[in-house]
C-alpha cells in the first residue's frame, strides 16, 4: 500500500511543472487529502484522524531508539536543539507537540545508544516487568529477532487505535515480516525512508552524453540495467599522474563496498527468504534464482575490482571518495547523505538501483529502516495505541520537509530527480533475511554473502550458500515455531 510520502512526492512533481513553488499534501488518485496545497477548494472535507481528541493527564510516552538507524534529529528533537530556519527541525518538533496537545501526553525520546547497546535497557525493563518504554525504534536487524523470540514485542493487531489499513501505514512491509499472522514489526509514515540509491554527477554524465544518453529515460524505458550501468561507469577512469590508483584519481563508480552491495541482490529481484508451500521459510536464491545469483555475484565482484571503480570497506581503512569531489561519475548514496550535497558545487542527480534486465517487472529498493516495536510490558494499551497512531497521522508535514531537505533548492531545477525518488521509495521491499538476520550467524553470513565475497575474500555465493543455508533455515523456522 502506498504511503502518504509517495502522494506528497507525486504532487510535488506535478507542482514543479505547473506552479512557481512547491505544493504539498495531495492524493495520487486526484482527490485532496488535505486543504493545504490541494487542487480543490477549502470546502473539501478535511482528512480527519481516526483517534478522537483526549486528555491522558500528561501520561508519559517514552520512545527508546537505536541511534545507528533512527538518526537523531529526524524523529524527535528538543526545542533547544532546533536550528533557526530549519524546516525539518520545525516539523519534527511540531509533530510531537501536536500529538502531546491532542492527547494530553508527554512524549519523551531516549537514545538507547548504538546497535550493540540499545537492546540492554529494553530487555532489562521487560524482564523486570517495568512499563518503562512504550515504543521501541530498532536497528534494522540487530536484536529484532531476539526481541520477538524473547516476548519483548506485542502484536500491532492488539491495539484498536492503530488503523493499519490507512495510507500512512505501510501494511505491505509489515505483512512481509509477519509471523503466524502476527505483526511484531511496525512501519508507517513516522519511519522516514532509509535506503540506498545511485547518485550521479550531472556535469560529468553530460560530458559523455553521446554515449550515455538521458539516464532518466533509461530508467523510464527500463534500459537502466546493471549491465548498462557498468558499461557507463567503465567510460571513466583517470590517474592523476602519480602512477598509483587512490582517492586522488577519477573514477566511474565509487561506493562503500559493504552494506550497499546487499541491495543489488534485491534490485535484481532475488529475495533472501521466501515462504514455501508447506508454510516453512527457506533461503531462496539458489532454489529459485540459481543461475542469476551466481551471475550477479560474479558481476558485482568483477565490477568492484574494476579499474574504473573505487571502493572502501570495513577492512581496508581507505578514505571514502564521494560525488562532491567532482571526480566520481556514479556513487551509491544513502538518501540521508543527499542532504550534504545541497551546498556543493557538484550537481547531483539520483536514480534507483538498476534492474537485472529489461524483462524485470519493476525497480526494487531494499528498505534499511529500523522497525517500530511495542513492548509487552505496556500497561495502558489505549494510550500507547493512540500515540503511535497519531505520530503516524501527524507525519505528513515531516515527510514533506524531509523530502525537501534531501534536495533543497535543487528540487526546482530537477523534476526528474523528484520522479526518481518517488520510484525509489515506492519500490521499497523488506526481507526476513535482513530484518531477522540475527536469528543465526548463518543467516547473517547469507545476508552479506556478496559483500563478503568482494571485500573479505569469502567464497563465491554458491559455496557460501551451501555452507550456511540449512542452519539458517532451521533457526529461522524455529523462531516461527516458538511464536
Structure explained in plain terms:
This protein has 483 residues and is an alpha/beta fold. It folds into 3 domains: 6-39, no CATH class; 49-193 and 369-429, D-Maltodextrin-Binding Protein, domain 2; 196-366 and 440-481, 3-Layer(aba) Sandwich (D-Maltodextrin-Binding Protein, domain 2), CATH 3.40.190. Helix content is 37%, strand content 12%. The chain is built from 19 helices and 14 strands. It has helices spanning 4-18, 87-103, 119-127, 144-149, 171-176, 202-207, 209-212, 215-220, 226-233, 259-267, 285-288, 290-304, 381-393, 396-407, 415-426, 432-435, 441-447, 449-455, 461-481, and strands at residues 59-65, 105-111, 135-137, 196-201, 237-238, 250-256, 273-275, 281-283, 309-312, 328-334, 348-351, 365-366, 372-373, 428-429. Strands 4, 5, 6, 9, 10 and 11 form a 6-stranded mixed β-sheet that branches. The protein has a 4-stranded mixed β-sheet with strand order 2-1-3-13, with helices on one face. Helix 17 packs across helix 19. The protein is globular, with a radius of gyration of 23 Å.
Amino acid at each position: 500500500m502506498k504511503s502518504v510520502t509517495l502522494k506528497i512526492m507525486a504532487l510535488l512533481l506535478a507542482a514543479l511543472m505547473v506552479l512557481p513553488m512547491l505544493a504539498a499534501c495531495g492524493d495520487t488518485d486526484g482527490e485532496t487529502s488535505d486543504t493545504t496545497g490541494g487542487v480543490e477548494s477549502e470546502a473539501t472535507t478535511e482528512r480527519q484522524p481516526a483517534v478522537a481528541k483526549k486528555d491522558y493527564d500528561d501520561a508519559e510516552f517514552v520512545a527508546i531508539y537505536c541511534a545507528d538507524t533512527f538518526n537523531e534529529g529526524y524523529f524527535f528533537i528538543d526545542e533547544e536543539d532546533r536550528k533557526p530556519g530549519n524546516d525539518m527541525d520545525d516539523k519534527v518538533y511540531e509533530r510531537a507537540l501536536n500529538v502531546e496537545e491532542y492527547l494530553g501526553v508527554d512524549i519523551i525520546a531516549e537514545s538507547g545508544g548504538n546497535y550493540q547497546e540499545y537492546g540492554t535497557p529494553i530487555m532489562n525493563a521487560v524482564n523486570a516487568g517495568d512499563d518503562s518504554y512504550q515504543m521501541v525504534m530498532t536497528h534494522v536487524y540487530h536484536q529484532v529477532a531476539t526481541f520477538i523470540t524473547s516476548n519483548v514485542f506485542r502484536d500491532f493487531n492488539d491495539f484498536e487505535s492503530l488503523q493499519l489499513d490507512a495510507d500512512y501505514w505501510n501494511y505491505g512491509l509489515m505483512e512481509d515480516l509477519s509471523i503466524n499472522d502476527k505483526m511484531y514489526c511496525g512501519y508507517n509514515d513516522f519511519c522516514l525512508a532509509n535506503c540506498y540509491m545511485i547518485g550521479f554527477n550531472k556535469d560529468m554524465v553530460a560530458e559523455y552524453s553521446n554515449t550515455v544518453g538521458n539516464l532518466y529515460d533509461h530508467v523510464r524505458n527500463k534500459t537502466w540495467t546493471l549491465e548498462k550501468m557498468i558499461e557507463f561507469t567503465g567510460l571513466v577512469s583517470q590517474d592523476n599522474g602519480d602512477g598509483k590508483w587512490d582517492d586522488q584519481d577519477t573514477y566511474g563508480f565509487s561506493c562503500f563496498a559493504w552494506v550497499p552491495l546487499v541491495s543489488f541482490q534485491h534490485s535484481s529481484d532475488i529475495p533472501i527468504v521466501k515462504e514455501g508451500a508447506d508454510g516453512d521459510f527457506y533461503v531462496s536464491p539458489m532454489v529459485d534464482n540459481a543461475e542469476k545469483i551466481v551471475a550477479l555475484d560474479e558481476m558485482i565482484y568483477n565490477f568492484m575490482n574494476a579499474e574504473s571503480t573505487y571502493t572502501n570497506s570495513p577492512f581496508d581503512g581507505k578514505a571514502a571518495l564521494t560525488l562532491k569531489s567532482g571526480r566520481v561519475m556514479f556513487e551509491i548514496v544513502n538518501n540521508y547523505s543527499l542532504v550534504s550535497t545541497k551546498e556543493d558545487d557538484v550537481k547531483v542527480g539520483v536514480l534507483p538501483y538498476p534492474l537485472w534486465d529489461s524483462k524485470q517487472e519493476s525497480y526494487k529498493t531494499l528498505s534499511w529502516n529500523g522497525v517500530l516495536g511495542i513492548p509487552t510490558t505496556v500497561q495502558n494499551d489505549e494510550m500507547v495505541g493512540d500515540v503511535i497512531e497519531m505520530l503516524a497521522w501527524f507525519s505528513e508535514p515531516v515527510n514533506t520537509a524531509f523530502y525537501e531537505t534531501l534536495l533543497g533548492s535543487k528540487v526546482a531545477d530537477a523534476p526528474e530527480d523528484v520522479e526518481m525518488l518517488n520510484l525509489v521509495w515506492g519500490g521499497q521491499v523488506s526481507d526476513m533475511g535482513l530484518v531477522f538476520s540475527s536469528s543465526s550467524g548463518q543467516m547473517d553470513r547469507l545476508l552479506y554473502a556478496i559483500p563478503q565475497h568482494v571485500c573479505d575474500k569469502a567464497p563465491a555465493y554458491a559455496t557460501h550458500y551451501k555452507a550456511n543455508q540449512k542452519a539458517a533455515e532451521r533457526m529461522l523456522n524455529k523462531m516461527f515455531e516458538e511464536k
